[in-house]
Specification:
Number of helices of chain A: 17
CATH class of the largest domain in chain A: Alpha Beta
Oligomer: homotetramer
Shape of chain A: globular
CATH topology of the largest domain in chain A: Glutamine Phosphoribosylpyrophosphate, subunit 1, domain 1
Number of strands of chain A: 26
Distance between the termini of chain A: 40 Å
Radius of gyration of chain A: 23 Å
Number of domains of chain A: 2
Strand order of the largest sheet of chain A: 4-3-5-2-11-10-12
Structural class of chain A: alpha+beta
């Protein structure tokens, strides 16, 4: 009984998962702006569980609340919401990177400009963030956070343009990478998506008021209507007019490239009930399982999903193969918040703190385990062992995505390349021996493309970005080329 | 994608669920006693999420730690475990009843007797607890908690017998109801199960050391072996001998009745990977779904489980009926801890904070929703509505247990009888109209008996207790007869 | 600039002070009972800074709040006071003994009796508390705290008498030692003082409603009128009548002895603005300084008080001797709450964290330091050194009370006898050398008696208790004779 | 028994006091840099109790800790100090201004420059801070705090000069007002005092290592030697050389004016044991009392200081007048931290929460109350009433400083001018009637000058700044002239 929504992100004891770094939500012109933003962020919680922030504007003043922890730990509190008045707000939910758990890095960030205040939040990563930061510091800028968002703010503050919109566009055009960005000024909600469209961003509408958010599930929770995806390289400016009406303007970046959405949104990150790039994530995942059953069939008694991500693919695999689908692994949802630093003795229990074998469905059976992906393989190893201990006759591991060889630079927190299983062992056979399964197979890259988009990969012009599998990066990597500073180094160590 | 393990208990916004009140775990003679107890309680977390306590004995002194919150929030902390030395321990995890959230009520409770200290913890409820409490107070006893466990302690302290074992047996024989009880003295671990065997209690073994716990899943997590169920009316005394060996003695209560395990352990409470009364809970639940498909078939396009409890039954229903099983409802696991007191505005979003419809699997379809049980029906109403809003053509609700008419007095926290859906509407038709489904059907009592035990109910001598369905209570109800005091009234309101 | 009110109790880094264990306050029939009790406890805060508790009765139910920390940290909070409705309350403020910082020990304690609830709080100590506790446990009583107050509750609960008043008197007559006790029932406020009158207890009145409290300063803060001292061995029962009037009854214990108030109340404990036993504490302290100047004159340039206790005596010494009084030591009031466990490096700064020399008044001068008492002498040593470091030509230490040789058993927390300075060195000369002063002199026992009561000590029938100076204990010491258990041992180590 | 050290700042219920805004401490080249800084800040706690921060540099990285609350609440914790390695540190303690209780405003502030990191902390206020801030924002700077310190950082970051020293000097020369400033770079500790020398700053030395701090009491606590005052307009640069030696360089600002130290440092702010501008604060305060006795004698029985500030002046008054000095008002030091927001009912007890009359010294007596200053007069009113209630025959109030008519702009938080008592009533007679005293007199401006400096005020070239009394401001007031923005307004309201 597996649940693809609650990623391992929250309680990853082994560092054996990928993490998305953020979710964003914004709304303009609605009297319940902060409450709706809180609900939207709650629906996007799977994109980041470390902290959440909201900035709103009440016609006179901007207000901000930032809290470590889950959205539901803070933003449902009447006292907190009372401090967020006004009819326009943007919010952000953030994933916990090691060590840097500091409120000053929690988005949205705010700056007071001569033309008025502006708050900015983004999901994704800039491939030239450090390069720009160094230029800014050389130019006398003071950076208080280690967040790339602050770089955007500085670029806006220093822009030669007059209007905030022009300044925002000026800044955004200097940024390279994969991102979805929202900005809030005294009258405007601005949304922007990177030129290649790596990170998702959708536009919705509630009571005629515009909403932007990372996934459609944030529209569903508040009963809002999906309007369309923000296009790659598009900047949409929504502005409240003196008469209360809202004017919406769209500008397409001249640097826009053909869209290449991140495949991992389909494989792992997005919520299964979301529609990303016009495609149901759940259906895509089931298709991955169906294609996997076709590519890598096996004689077996039960198909067992590996929680949490493997469930829809396992269902597809079972339906395609005719082998019964059963909950052979049970998940314990009561993993406390301090399990993050357990005693060594408890750490040794590892995967059992979260999962247990359902012996009645395993004992004496030939089991097909279906998982969404393999990163370092340490968890797979333990789960295969757990299934064997529960009496399985055979254990076949099927992975609903290709092997991962390359790091990401667009907002996914990947382990160092040499720690990826595919780089540690030479070929599937060796990987299978390490994991201890009777057989191991991965979905092909074309199997994945067909599951998501219905067609094989177009090598000349790939429909998605798939660099972690192929090494084919959709943008240049300026910071990586410079490589003179660590990615997240700051010379100030701080607790606040 | 539903998860029967994480009950609604933790974030029940509507009071529309049943709650078990506790889980217990104890171990004797193992050097890692406290750590193993913490892990066992973690596996039993679904039986109570309010608070957890552990008492251990280190050869000289008893130690206790009690904390509000999840086991994993506190007991994996090295500092906390360091305060729990010794090779014998018992622990308890407790469900939150309204208002009385006080550390002084957290078990195990301890008393210093003339013959030495004793700690006691139990799962279940005494049907003569208040009657005995009144007698004790009349006799000059001082009660510091509102817990029935304290009554047991007083009976032990006042017993005319000399040895702790005899005092414990003397006390336990005065208690009526349904319970599993553990006690720890300076040399002994004692386990007792009520004369009718209403609440479960199993015996296990790790490295030759005896363990007792509420469910087998607590054995599995630590790799312990299942030995046998403690019998109804049995008291098992394990005592460390001077040479370190452990002597185990069993006494059968003369008041023991034929066993009648609580059916709700199968329907809802126990973890699906547990084996209760020798039967796989998961298999029992799937059988309920299979029998339900036979008893209440319907033409439909998809079978959708209602999270969390309905999943195994839904799978059984799908397999029996041949209708595809699909995750039509997605659960949000990131429900924060303060969602318990949200603003009214957020409360209005109700079920959507935890569940969302997976439109791709619902729209235009005839949906069979399968749930484990219906208590008040308020959640069912909202879920049916959510499925309709997502575009379902028809919504048929199938419930994998009979209608609930009667309150429990053995440790399940039931709403007042008049709030039970079955008592509010006259017949299934009326209930169906209230809920807004196209059809509604419940599993029959015999369908349930066959799913669990393989046979129809024996009216002369029912194999299980099923009083919430039938009104046939397995014991007399002394406190209820007296009915002069509220069940959980204390005259002292306290925060500590 | 020294302040005798804020004792070293709160931040005693050296264990070089005496501590009183408690203050009590109670009021009957006043609509603001809890608020007035909180204010009274605030005025009595110098008698105990660890924790404070209040119990009140609202006509239906008893309510209690207990909090670690200062009264002003919690009881001025509207939310806290709102949980304490009703027109009768008793409260208690408690000093922190090492290790046992547990809410379950915070008074008042409450018990539900057959005849109704009763709450009890006391200041002082029972010399037969452990003896009685052992008898109670042998008789089947369960003790949840390590507080002697619980023993009183058990004696009340087990009394053969019917009315609470008779039960209370029955219990109190079994207790030996020095104490002031308050009890609250559904209609009564009861006050009792030990047979020898060791601990103080006064009766006051506000708007015609009776008040009892440890010192008159608790009457002053709320503008209440002082009525009289509760006599030694007296029990005063105040009862609300059905018509709202209050009937007051007094019973004198047949075991009452001639009163012998504790001299340390005058020397150190009581607030200088309090009137204890009909005498101004401030005047008594100044008299001690005057008598000290007569008994132990010295040629000097300035009289400097040692903060905090030495200030009034120093003023008396200066006025009598004609030597100018100057603030030669400045106190830092901002000692944080965690200074209790500083790093070793910071601990080394010792007395300087709280005091600093005012060099302008010290340099080149012959200084008379006046302190209230010397316990272990470790602080005196450091202060003399600090004064020398600031350039004093001579340092003469004058102590406004006699040498301390004996432990207390009536509620003052004294160090072990062998750690008392007077027991470590043979004579004043040796003590003076240890401390490093040019001369050292103590007030004589008759000088102290005259300062407080105007007459020499009557050896046949001492007017006060002075056992710490003389070894002449006013009661038998039953627990000490038995001496089989440590004074505060419990076999359960607990954090809650 | 009054204590001039612990200002009302901490628990000012009426807003009837003046507040200094900060204290600073820095040390270079000492292995215990952070611990010594913590101790120095503890000694300077009276200059600000809201929060404290320390920045240090360990040869590789800067580290910072910032905490709300007292120094002793956090910085004595071994865990906190362990996070502050290195042999150079600066620290800051800050007074709580209303509303803006935010960690992001706690100093020192830090910026990463191209030439390396720099941390800055200051005491005082810039009279052109807002003007500069607006210019900076217009130039594209982003301000994260509302602190003027950030303005300094921006000026440093944007300076055209190369070395940090030159950049610092460049920045400081643009700032107007009254301030003492410390900066820390990777090799340097820099100290600067404003051109008029309004705020104090002293240089000390420990084990040959330079220290700078606001007052000498911070040198005394760590046993450091006073070297000299930093001169007005002086910038002292201490730099660690490669061989570990320290080079010290001094530069005098060309804008330096004749020094005019703030008289309120002597009247109220500085600790009595500090030496400010070469004069003992304690002696200056006693002199104020002596001069007051000469200027404003009265027939009376006792001289009673008004806590806390009035004590030394009262002693001087008593010595000069021959009227006995007595503690007629007792202070309660146990004012809890939440007293800041008490219930209305408790607020009504007002001054009594902190002070009580010592009736034995008041009743039937003619009382001279001596206070250090009168701001709004609300506290004086209550204290006079309290003294009358305690039975005084006459109450004469003598104030050891002149009447306050004008606001401060150099770091003292003054109430709005129209709330100052001297502006509310026309003349001393009317003020006396409002306060309810039998007579009221203030020290003359010349009496104050003579008490501090030994000479009358030189009207042509006043030796001190005395603008709150005279309106003669020592600098121009640029922000005030502009007056387009509120003094502490930010458009972002934030909790973090």
């Amino acid at each position: 009984m597996n649940q693809p929504v609650s990623h391992d992100a929250f309680h990853d004891l082994d560092g054996d998962t990928l993490h998305e770094e953020c979710g964003v939500f914004g709304i303009l012109g609605h009297p319940d702006a902060a409450t709706l933003t809180a609900l939207g962020l709650h629906a996007l919680q799977h994109r980041g569980q470390e902290a959440a922030g909201i900035v709103c504007f009440d016609g006179t003043q901007f207000h901000t609340e930032k809290h470590m922890g889950l959205v539901g730990d803070h933003y449902t509190n009447p006292a907190t919401l009372a401090k967020l008045p006004g009819d326009m707000a943007i919010g952000h939910t953030r994933y916990s990177t090691t060590g840097e758990v500091a409120l000053r890095n929690v988005q949205p960030l705010f700056a007071e400009l001569e033309v008025g205040g502006i708050a900015v939040a983004h999901n994704g990563n800039f491939t030239n963030g450090l390069t720009l930061r160094r230029q800014l510091i050389a130019g006398g800028a003071i950076c208080q956070s280690t967040s790339d968002t602050e770089v955007v703010l500085h670029l806006i503050a220093r822009s030669r343009y007059t209007s905030t919109t022009d300044r925002f566009i000026d800044a955004i055009r200097q940024m390279e990478g994969g991102y979805s960005m929202l900005a809030l000024t005294r009258t405007k909600l601005i949304a922007a998506r990177d030129p290649t469209g790596i990170r998702p961003l959708v536009m919705g509408e509630l009571d005629g008021k515009p909403i932007f958010c990372s996934e459609t599930c944030a529209l569903d929770i508040i009963g809002a209507k999906y309007v369309r995806d923000v296009e790659n390289g598009e900047i949409i400016i929504c502005e409240i007019q003196p008469d209360g009406s809202i004017e919406i303007d769209s500008r397409k970046s001249p640097t826009a490239q053909p869209e290449r959405l991140c495949l991992f949104e389909y494989v792992y990150f997005a919520r299964p009930d979301s529609v990303v790039g016009g495609r149901s994530v759940y259906v895509a995942r089931k298709n991955m399982g169906i294609n996997l059953a076709k590519e890598a069939p096996v004689e077996a008694d039960v198909v067992v999903p590996v929680p949490d991500g493997g469930t829809p693919a396992a269902l597809g695999y079972a339906q395609e193969s005719g082998i019964p689908f059963e909950y052979g692994i049970i998940r314990n949802h009561y993993v406390g918040r301090t399990f993050i630093e357990p005693t060594q003795q408890i750490r040794a229990f590892g995967v059992k703190l979260k999962h247990s074998a359902n012996r009645a469905m395993i004992e004496g059976k030939r089991v097909v385990l279906v998982d969404d992906s393999i990163v370092r393989g340490t968890t797979s190893l333990k789960i295969v062992q757990m299934i064997r201990d529960a009496g399985a006759k055979e254990v076949h591991l099927r992975v609903a995505s290709p092997m991962i060889f390359h790091p990401d630079f667009y907002g996914i927190d990947t382990p160092d390349a040499e720690k990826l299983l595919a780089n540690q062992y030479d070929g599937v056979e060796a990987m299978c021996r390490y994991i201890g399964a009777d057989s191991l197979q991965f979905l092909s890259i074309n199997g994945l493309y067909r599951a998501v988009g219905g067609e094989d990969r177009n090598p000349a012009r790939p429909q998605f970005t798939d660099h972690y599998f192929t090494g084919d990066y959709p943008t240049r990597l300026l910071d990586k080329a410079a490589e003179t500073m660590g990615r997240k180094v700051s010379v100030l160590a701080s607790n606040g």
